[in-house]
Specification:
The complex is a heterodimer. By secondary structure, chain A is α/β, with parallel strands linked by helices. Helix content of chain A is 28%, strand content 26%. Classes of the chains: A alpha/beta, B alpha+beta.
Chain lengths: 387, 78
């Protein structure tokens, strides 16, 4: 009997893991992807939507078209995982028994933990949010823009920095720059968590006249007064506030009793196994691993999960391990970008921002649909070689 | 002043900026003079705690390391 593999979530990690497993095991496995919408969304595109450089249509495709023919797609909401029985209960009443489970359910945005967040701020972490922000920017006639993070961990750590650079360029092009101020609110004493990246970013911020407010951990927003308050007791006035909403794991994880207090799955940093469940794996934003929540992380984790499940299904010892590899592009505006490549042991040494890295990011955005979900990205690109 | 610990935070295994954010949150709930103790394993947390205390005016009473675990004791000043 073929091994029954259930993959929860049709994002980058779930789709790639399902395709790799089906390719590797062929008739020896029956792979089912469960996704509540059946649509695959390319989230890195939200940033471009917010700044009016892309429209929403480009960002979503039918998940079915990205899966190998022999992978089944169930457009269903998973309600609970019974880890002892090996069954996923579906919201509409059905159930899916599994021999191996991949949890790739990502993160969800929560607004209620920060007072005033929903009323007082904009975000570009959902398609609707990015479209709303685009309209707000279109109507912006000058003033003070503040950009920050309302909770950690959050997806794509460089995104707020990219946003300030790209927004600065946007205002310049619209002739509003001399009537506007842009400030990045940082939870630390530098622009970005990773020190070498901060050293590269801060001088560019200075050069472009972008402010940096350090140790500003957002506590509350007063929408009517246009003021954001920090845990450190500071207050900052704004005309347009852009805050990354706090993230949490999916409620399915809470309902199944598998996660920590924030709904993240306790995941082995090398094997990606969840807790002591030998047949359950997690990848991408759903894990509690202390690395970037990003599509790139899921992209590098999926082959590890697929290989370990394939070995277990064949009765051999799994060998693949995740080394913490992540690769992120970081737009610095003016059609330049840099890249952060790192793993558990090696911090990044980002190159000087160049047009080449900007072009590489755009090529990646374009090629994504034909390459990443299918596992067709050549090794040279995965390694993040110089463009 | 006594150095009774009002609250202890286990920040081991968390990576930057989590330890600072959790500490900032916990400090918010303390009164002036209270001491918070935190344990972290992220090597970057040492300079971050020093800088955070300096920026916020809180007093870093102690800052030590043993077997890769960093201990910080911070007194809330205001």
């Amino acid at each position: 009997m073929p091994a029954r593999v259930v993959v929860l979530g049709g994002g980058v990690g779930g789709t790639l893991a399902a395709n790799l497993l089906s390719k590797e095991l062929g008739r020896d496995a029956h792979v089912t992807v469960v996704d509540p919408t059946g649509m695959h969304v390319y989230q890195p595109g939200f940033l471009y939507v917010a700044l009016g450089q892309a429209n929403g249509r480009w960002l979503a495709r039918d998940e079915r078209t990205l899966l190998r023919r022999d992978v089944e797609l169930a457009v269903e909401t998973a309600e609970r995982i019974d880890s002892t029985e090996g069954v996923v209960q579906l919201a509409r009443g059905g159930s899916l028994p599994f021999d191996y489970l991949v949890i790739a359910t990502g993160a969800r945005l929560v607004y209620d933990t920060v007072p005033g967040l929903r009323e007082g701020s904009y975000e570009f972490y959902s398609l609707e949010g990015a479209q709303r922000l685009r309209e707000a920017l279109r109507g912006f006639r000058g003033g003070r823009i503040l950009v920050g993070i309302a909770g950690i961990p959050y997806k794509c750590p460089p995104a707020p920095v990219e946003f300030v650079f790209m927004a600065e360029e946007y205002l310049r092009k619209r002739g509003l720059r001399d009537r506007s101020e842009i400030t990045l609110l940082s939870p630390l004493n530098r622009a970005f968590t990773i020190e070498p990246a901060s050293k590269l970013i801060q001088p560019i911020m200075e050069e472009r006249g972008i402010g940096l407010s350090t140790f500003f951990n957002v506590e509350a927003v007063d929408a009517s007064a246009g003021v954001v308050e920090s845990l450190e007791g500071e207050k900052a006035e704004y005309d347009l506030l852009v805050l990354v909403p706090p993230h949490r794991g999916q409620s399915l994880i809470d309902a199944s009793g598998l996660g920590d207090s924030s709904g993240w799955l306790p995941t082995n940093r090398r094997t990606l196994q969840v807790g002591d469940h030998e047949r359950i794996f997690a990848l991408g934003d759903a894990t509690d691993l202390p690395i970037s929540k990003s599509g790139s992380t899921a992209h590098f984790e999926a082959p590890v999960v697929a290989s370990r499940i394939a070995s277990l299904a064949r009765g051999t010892a799994p060998k693949a391990n995740y080394g913490g590899r992540v690769m992120c592009f970081l737009e610095t505006g003016n059609r330049r970008a840099t890249a952060l490549r790192f793993d558990y042991e090696n911090p990044p040494t980002p190159p000087k921002p160049s047009r080449g890295w900007h072009a590489a990011k755009w090529i990646f955005n374009r090629l994504y649909w034909e390459t990443v979900p299918q596992g067709r990205i050549p090794e040279r690109v995965k390694e993040g070689s110089e463009p | 002043m006594s150095t009774t610990i009002a609250v202890t935070l286990d920040l081991k295994g968390l990576s930057c900026p989590m330890p600072i954010v959790k500490t900032a949150k916990a400090m918010r709930d303390l009164g002036p003079g209270d001491v918070l103790e935190a344990f972290a394993t992220d090597p970057g947390s040492a300079p971050d705690f020093v800088a955070w205390c300096k920026a916020t005016g809180n007093q870093l009473l102690e800052h030590s390391e043993q077997d890769g675990v960093y201990r910080f004791a911070i007194r809330k000043t205001r």
